[in-house]
Amino acid sequence: MEELYSIMRELLEVEYNQKSLLHIIKQLEKNCGTEQKEEMQLIVNSTKYYLEALQIDLKKSINRMDKYIAETAKEK
């Protein structure tokens, strides 16, 4: 059961980080002018990389949860 709680904490942290990223992107879109295009592109690329890293973490957590559930089902 501890394993499931650990996994749920990880999933919630990933969700929180994704919401934070979305907030950052919305602020950038709101405050960006045309003279800042190059800097904006750098920031957008950085946020895309960050989002991809979050998605990888989420997949790992889901796989751990699936494995744990399958192992628990075998024991019963």
Overview of the structural elements:
The protein contains 2 helices and no strands. It is mostly helical and 76 residues long. α1 packs antiparallel against α2. The two termini are 14 Å apart.
Query: What gyration radius follows from the Cα positions, in whole Å?
Result: 18 Å
Proportion of residues in helical segments: over 70%
Largest sheet: none
What is the general shape? elongated
First-to-last CA distance:
14 Å
Order of helices and strands: HH
Number of helices: 2
Average pLDDT over all residues = 82
Keywords:
elongated; mainly alpha; 76 residues
Brief overview:
It is built from 2 helices and no strands.
What layout of secondary structure does this protein have?
Blueprint: H1 2-31, H2 37-75
Helix pairs in contact: 1-2
